Amino acid sequence: MSYTIQAEIRTEIGKGSSRRLRHANLVPAVIYGPGKEPMSIKMAQKDIVNIQLNDDFYNTDLTLVIDGKEVKVRVQAMQRHAYKTLIEHIDFKFA
């Protein structure tokens, strides 16, 4: 199964800006990999919460649509809230 997620590049980086994003129901994330510059992005919490429950979400390539450009990635790590069903941060690797 393939997943396509809408995302945007984020310009503000740091603890305070990440907290503001989470308060606005957005998930901060980063994409990195060998030979490419890391990209800081943000995406809607509602887009991730349901599809991350599927096992193949972690094992297959995902498509992120960042400002109209498609980028293939894989989930490297995900931080979840301690007791709520929220995702706090996601690390992606270029596929």
What secondary-structure arrangement, pairings included, does this model have?
Layout: E1 3-9, H1 15-23, E2 26-33, E3 36-44, H2 45-49, E4 62-66, E5 69-80, E6 87-94
Parallel strand pairs: 1-4, 2-6
Antiparallel strand pairs: 1-3, 2-3, 4-5, 5-6
Keywords: Ribonucleoprotein, Ribosomal protein, RNA-binding, rRNA-binding
Pfam families: Ribosomal_L25p
Family: Belongs to the bacterial ribosomal protein bL25 family.
Key features of this structure:
mainly beta; Ribosomal Protein L25, Chain P; 15% helix; globular
| Total of domains | 1
Cα-atom radius of gyration: 13 Å
Strands of the largest sheet, in order across it? 1-3-2-6-5-4
How many angstroms separate the termini?
A: 16 Å
CATH superfamily: Ribosomal Protein L25, Chain P
CATH class: Mainly Beta
What is the residue-mean pLDDT, rounded to a whole number? 91
What is the count of β-strands?
Answer: 6
Give structural notes.
This protein has helices at residues 15-23, 45-49, and strands spanning 3-9, 26-33, 36-44, 62-66, 69-80, 87-94. With 95 residues, it is mainly beta. It has a single domain (3-94), classed as Ribosomal Protein L25, Chain P. A six-stranded mixed barrel has the order 1-3-2-6-5-4. A hairpin with a 6-residue loop joins strand 5 and strand 6. The radius of gyration is 13 Å and the shape is globular.
Question: What's this, in brief?
Answer:
By secondary structure, this protein is mainly beta. The chain has 2 helices and 6 strands, in the order βαββαβββ.
